[in-house]
Write a structure and sequence with these properties.
The complex is a heterodimer.
Chain A (H helix, E strand, L loop, with lengths): L1 H18 L3 E5 L5 E5 H7 L1 H8 L8 E2 L5 H13 L6 H5 L15 H8 L3 H13 L3 H13 L6 H8 L7 H10 L8
Parallel strand pairs in A: 1-3
Antiparallel strand pairs in A: 1-2
Chain B lengths: L1 E6 L3 E7 L8 E6 L4 E6 L13 E3 L2 E6 L3 E6 L6 E5 L12 E5 L2 E8 L4 E7 L6 E9 L15 E6 L5 E6 L4 E6 L4 E7 L10 E4 L19 H8 L14 H8 L4 H8 L3 H8 L1 H4 L8 E5 L11 E5 L23 E7 L2 E6 L18 E6 L4 E7 L17
Classes of the chains: A mainly alpha, B mainly beta.
Keywords (chain A): Ubl conjugation pathway
Family (chain A): Belongs to the SKP1 family.
Protein name (chain A): SKP1-like protein
């Protein structure tokens, strides 16, 4: 009896520990598992926060069928690096009427984080951030891509993003004319 | 007396107070952050003849005064400062000074009526004492000479925020035209046949969505991601061109680009151009200047004139409805446009005019200011009018950085 009772208590303790676990396990579309701090996940992702609050987190790996392993690895990496950052409330509270863009410039580590990614990895990460409702990560990745267009000529933009020019010469001239007077070249 | 508004990250409403005839002695500020009015008095003993259009730039209100000078009033209570143009002063010229800003500099336009010359001055540094002459143009090359007319033959509509362009309204030809200071050439933007003369006839406007976009919904509202995603197009969708992302994310990226880069992106491919031109997306993208609101001619002199809009881009129009029909219908004919800035408009709603509904017994609201966004139809702020406000004369400017 004594032993059994002790066993029951141990079981109880284990269950409590399970519920109090400070990480969540996420599963990519190709079945790979990643662990991320529960606190960071809840703080940085509105979707994960909702799942944690709603108890729909699977200890054996919460299925994220829309996110590939490379993108999920980057998401988890980002969450871990973001450990000492500002609370999500400050990021989300952008409802003041006269607020200009609530976006804050990427920090040094965020810049480095997106700079090392290939184009495809970056695009995958934008989609993952959008899917998970990670406002800050979406901001940082979109900012990075917009930086790749800023100050570039149409030819240069086509080259960076590997886009075919499907305009005829006449059409292009027409577009240039359309706003020529408003579009001032330095 | 005048009422004017300026907004920063939070909103400011300012009223010119305590004026003897048109001499400016004090300015009253309202900040939406504190919800209170603050009075700023002129500390010296200068007689500042208030001449109309005010602009807000770098924390100061800049107001043209007589003798080709500008008084700058700091929003933090700094002493008022008067700066002068380096030019011969013609007494007759006052009343036509126009102050504005473009590309990070304050600009002043002086129309020398006597010589039919338009002079543009620049204050390179806010601490400079004097303005320097930037450009001179013979106005009679384009407009009818003033000497043969009793009233102005043209109006200044505004500066382009990103280029050395000034917009004018040519009264004899009834056209909005632009003047390029570097190329020294004129372009006709559009015809405005129903333009109505007013003290401040033109309000530069650029479409802007000010409140947070609904892209971050609660998790419960966005469970059906797959549906949402297919609705916005998949990877390789022609709408996203070579940038392999769903359309809404491409727009998210483009929304971070300045107007100039957007023009370049427009030239990249047909699909990108279509994406940028789509009215559903355009309101999220940067535009430095979409066009000008102006007062339209109308026979009824007892009510404020209806609004018209002169767009700079050809198609599609930046606003579905420039008549601000989202305002409560009981307000019809009692509001007046005072100022515009960064996609927001400042209106003054006055109780002194009979409202359309007065016959049925509903009384118009007491006078107040309203800040609204015509692109989204939102009314963002209603502000009680400060100590003094004049019905007739309300030069104003709305600004944020």
């Amino acid at each position: 009896m004594e032993v059994d009772k002790g066993k029951g208590e141990a079981e109880e303790t284990r269950k409590v520990a399970e519920a109090d676990r400070d990480t969540v396990t996420l599963k990519s579309s190709d079945g790979k598992l990643f662990e991320v701090s529960k606190e960071a996940a809840a703080r940085l992702s509105t979707v994960l926060a909702g799942m944690i609050a709603g108890g729909s987190i699977d200890d054996n790996g919460t299925d994220l069928k829309q996110i590939g392993s490379e993108a999920l690895e980057n998401v988890v990496d980002y969450c871990n690096k973001h450990a000492n950052s500002i609370p999500s409330a400050a990021l989300i509270s952008s409802s003041i009427s006269f607020n200009t863009a609530p976006f804050k410039e990427p920090e040094e580590w965020e810049r480095k984080f997106v700079d090392r990614l290939s184009h495809d990895a970056l695009f995958d990460l934008v989609e993952a951030a959008n899917f998970l409702g990670m406002e800050r990560l979406l901001d940082v990745t979109c900012h990075k891509i917009s930086e790749m267009m800023k100050g570039k000529s149409p030819d240069q933009i086509r080259e960076v993003f590997n886009i075919k020019n499907d305009y005829t010469k006449e059409e292009l001239e027409e577009i240039r004319q359309e706003l020529a007077w408003a579009f001032y070249d330095d | 007396m005048g009422g004017l508004a300026a907004t920063e990250a939070h909103s400011w409403v300012v009223q010119a107070d305590d004026m003897i005839v048109n001499y400016l002695k004090a300015v009253e500020f309202y900040s939406s952050e504190t919800g209170a009015w603050v009075l700023l008095r002129e500390s010296g003993h200068e007689w500042l003849l208030f001449l109309g259009r005010i602009t807000y730039f770098n924390g100061f209100l800049h107001i043209p005064i007589e003798y080709n000078a500008v008084v700058s009033v700091g929003t933090k209570g700094q002493p008022w400062r008067v700066t002068k143009m380096q030019c011969e002063v013609h007494r007759r010229d006052h009343g036509r000074g126009y102050v504005g800003h473009s590309q990070g500099h304050l600009l002043y336009v002086n129309n020398a009526i006597k010589d039919d010359v338009i002079s543009i001055y620049v204050l390179e540094d806010q601490d400079d004492e004097e303005w320097t002459l930037k450009h001179n143009v013979q106005s009679d090359l384009c407009f009818e000479p003033w000497k043969s007319m009793f009233s102005p033959t043209y109006y200044i509509a505004g500066f382009h925020p990103r280029g050395d362009l000034i917009f004018f309204y040519d009264r004899s030809r009834e056209k909005l035209i632009s003047y390029d200071m570097n190329r020294r050439d004129w372009h006709i933007v559009c015809a405005l046949e129903d333009f109505q003369h007013a003290h401040h006839p033109f309000f530069p406007y650029a479409v802007a969505i000010r409140s947070p976009s609904p892209r971050f919904q609660l998790p419960s509202q966005r469970a059906d991601f797959a549906t949402r995603r297919s609705a916005h197009g998949h990877r390789g969708d022609p709408g996203s061109g070579g940038l392999h992302l769903p359309q809404d994310l491409v727009v998210e990226i483009l929304s971070r680009l300045p107007a100039k880069s957007l023009y370049h992106v427009k030239c990249v491919s047909r699909s990108w151009r279509a994406l940028i031109s789509d009215p559903a997306h355009r309101c999220r993208l940067a535009q430095t200047l979409s066009g000008f609101f102006f007062c339209r001619r109308h026979p009824d002199k007892t009510t404020p004139p209806p609004l018209g809009f002169a767009g700079l881009d050809t198609s599609p129009p930046p606003l579905d409805d420039p008549s601000l029909s989202f305002l409560p219908s009981s307000w019809s004919k009692i509001w007046k446009l005072l100022a515009s800035c960064n996609g927001l408009l400042l209106l003054r709603c006055s109780s002194s005019q009979p409202s359309a509904g007065s016959a049925t017994g509903s009384s118009p609201p007491p006078p107040f200011y309203v800040v609204c966004n015509p692109a989204t139809g939102e009314m963002l702020e209603a502000i009680e009018i400060g100590r003094v406000a004049d019905e007739e004369f309300s030069p104003s400017y709305l600004m944020d950085d």
